[in-house]
């Protein structure tokens, strides 16, 4: 059994200590991400998942805006904000951020076109988006690039919309900062698979 794909999945971990010492160029990283988006499957082959990849100043601005929003929401919780700020600074230390969106216009069009399955399209959209996130995360890991997945939405939705002129129909679902791996994660605990998988 070929192990390349399995090894890529195993390499994929949540890396929080990020840096800017990455061998791949921005163009190469963008190509890796684009190929993942292109080849990840979705129900009815629906193109609901859209992403924004930010490098350099735009990457920094994302996390500056996240901090500004959190500071406002945690105005009376200084210790909580201080901890959040320290965490966000680690994300900003990377070289880029991917913003993941799901296009609600496409979802709604499919609901109308295939009314019999209407209630499923929102779920299928999120499934497709999750697969894209996993594919990109694993592909980055396979190229020696660390990443983690964050969910500051919907608090930051308006800020991101202003920054990148995001269409009204795009719904922000996740943020993925990435960069060099400055600290390896600890050993991961796995629940016994006998409790999760039944083979007959």
TrEMBL record:
Pfam families: Nitroreductase. It is found in: Cytoplasm. GO terms for biological process: cellular response to oxidative stress. One of its GO terms (cellular component) is cytoplasm. InterPro entries: Frm2/Hbn1, Nitroreductase, Nitroreductase-like. GO terms for molecular function: oxidoreductase activity. Keywords: Cytoplasm, Oxidoreductase. Residues 11-179 form the Nitroreductase domain. PANTHER family: FATTY ACID REPRESSION MUTANT PROTEIN 2-RELATED. This is Nitroreductase family protein. It comes from Megamonas hypermegale.
